[in-house]
Amino acid sequence: RNPLPTPGLALPIVGHLHLFRIEQLPAWRKRLGDIYSLQLGSFPCVMLNGYDLIFKVLLKQHESLLERPNNFLHKDIFEHHGIASLGGEHWKEQRAFLQSLLRAFGVGRNIMEERIEREADYLLSTIDAAQGEPLDMSGLVMVSVNNVICGVIFNKRFNQEDKIIVYWLGFVKRLFQLLVSSAALNYFPILKYAPLDIFHYKELKSISKSMRETIWSWVDRDNRKINLTDEAFEDIVQAFLTEMERKKEKGIVNTSMNEANLMSTLLSLFIAGSETIANTIVFAVLYMVNFPHLQDQLFREIDDVIGIDRPPSILDKSKLKFFSAFIMETQRFARVVPIAIDRQATKDIHLDDYTIPKGSTVMVNLDSVLRDESAWGDPDIFRPDRFLDADGSVIVKKELIPFGIGKRNCLGDALASMELFLFIGALVQKFEFLPEKDNELPTLVPNVGITRVPKPFKVRAIRRQK
Ligand code: HEM
Q: Which annotated residues bind heme (predicted)?
């Protein structure tokens, strides 16, 4: 087999870190092909691009890619615990438990849908209160999606002006900023000892500690009554604590169902499941403002199928074809998570021409699929109708992988899809979104970090009349 190509000379200590930029990755793929290796500080990494290769590696070599690298995020923020950081059998246990629980929340009496609809309704009233004056929606949307995740986890919600939620979202925002600006901590663990905390190690640790303390106060362990015979649950904490007690009762010790994993799992759900959704909803508004003919078409379809008197329900989805295509295109075009969460190869992985060496950090470039010319033809044009056939039916394209692919893909994909459908549907139905000033459109170019975030912009939300 051949040695993996590299993007250039690896410098002592930093390796290729001085060359590494997200914007640089399409050019590297063109020059080096779908797979290449990189030395990022002390971490040997392999980057995977393109649907075929990503599919082949993640699906066929899943068992060799269950672990996370021992970097700052997993070691210091998640403390090697919880759904996003565990590997092996303990990850499988957490994943199966959470997956079946989330599924149960969405069947029968769909408590997930009820919660999202309630939150969407609150969101509409706060937007309405601005009476068409220019408004930056990102903060309001963030509170709403945070409430959905709080509901799923603790069966709790907060008002927009609640001090605790303002304080909490301040932590989340700062954490995301620092995870980008201090990304070097992932590759050079020694930097945590840098003088004057210039890499913000202590600040990050202190934010993570405060987030853990806040989460623990919301868990409210002492006031939770556990009944081992309960089978139906309204929130994750209750189900998790009950399962912990059951395992204890049965004397099972080799289990991930313990407090350390509960805490880190909840932290991961907040980190993975709020910013991502909020950014996608705000991108949808940005695209509606930029492409008013599409916004009209969305409203006309919703008006025809549902009218404006009752909110959209998940049962309407199959009839709202253009709207479904719009959401797909929003996720493709926005590419909110450019690179999936890094894995670590626990064995040599042999491919036709190359080997991914055991111990490498494997990086999965989702951007390379969502923007692949060979899959989409014109990937840089926002065009929802690429997901519709000549009869107007929705086309499912295998390359639409905003949630990753394989058994360790996004845990919250179904919840996320429901949130996007219900929140964006409610917004389209009730308001027409206009730019802050006529003829001055907000930029489509986002800020790029761990996630893509729309640059701040304001809209006028004009209530649609009956
Ligand atoms: C539009 C919204 C979202 C997007 C684009 C998104 C995207 C992703 C991606 C790309 C991954 C990495 C997959 C991989 O490595 O192959 C991921 C992982 C994950 N996501 Fe999401 N996500 C979203 C919403 C959510 C929500 C709402 C939740 C919470 C329920 C969530 C929870 C998670 C968790 C826990 C993981 C780690 C899974 C594991 O390690 O097994 N995500 N997500």
A: 410
Distance CA(448)–CA(443), nearest Å, equals 14
Q: With contact defined as beta carbons under 8 Å apart, do 158 and 150 qualify?
A: yes
Longest dimension (CA), the chain: 68
Work out the percent of the chain whose per-residue pLDDT is above 70: 99
pLDDT in tens, 91-119: 999 999 999 999 988 766 688 899 999 99
- Considering only CA atoms, which residue is closest to atom 30 of ligand 1? 412
231 Cα–ligand 1 center, Å? 26
Query: Is 400 within 8 Å of 331 (Cβ atoms)?
Result: yes
pLDDT tens string 351-408? 989 999 999 999 999 999 999 999 999 999 999 999 999 999 999 999 999 999 999 9
Rounded to the nearest angstrom, the distance between the alpha carbon of 277 and the centre of ligand 1 is: 10
Q: Which two tokens stand for residue 418?
A: 């429901």
Residue 349, ligand 1, Cβ within 6 A? no
**Residue whose CA lies nearest to ligand 1 atom number 37:** 84
Element (H, E) at 17: none
**For the whole model, what pTM was predicted?**
0.96
Q: Shortest CA distance to 26 belongs to which of 380, 454, 384? A: 380
Measured in Å, residue 365 CA sits from the centre of ligand 1 at 15
Distance CA 276, CA 260 (A): 25
The answer to whether the annotation marks 45 as part of a ligand binding site is no
Domain ranges across the chain: 17-463
**How is residue 169 written in tokens?**
């979202």
Q: Which of 152, 341, 410 to mutate to test the pocket of ligand 1 (most atoms within 8 A of CB)?
A: 410
Copy the structure tokens of residue 179: 């995870």
* Cα separations in angstroms, 75 against 78, 333, 337: 6, 32, 21
Atom of ligand 1 nearest to the CA of 68: 40
